[in-house]
Amino acid sequence: MFKVNRYFDDCVMSMAFENEEGRATVGIMAAGEYEFSTSSVEYMTVISGKMRVLLPGETEWKDFKPYDTFVVGKDLSFKLVIEADCAYKCLYK
Question: What are the structural domains, with CATH classification, of the chain?
Fold first, then answer.
């Protein structure tokens, strides 16, 4: 069964599902600035658009484009700047 997640006044929305890869979401983000916390290790892959990301413990922002993946450890926070609407897939391990 699918589950719809909504964050930041519906500026970030995702559909959660589970398959042979494990738990995952596929979602969209409107332009804006966001901060997320993790409860498991997350593998975030950009599907469309671009994400500017400040990973935990880093001081420099990094840009990620379609097919790029970044990993955030469990129980950490990371920041995103989205300049134009984008889409992503997140795999939880």
Answer: 3-92 (2.60.120.10)
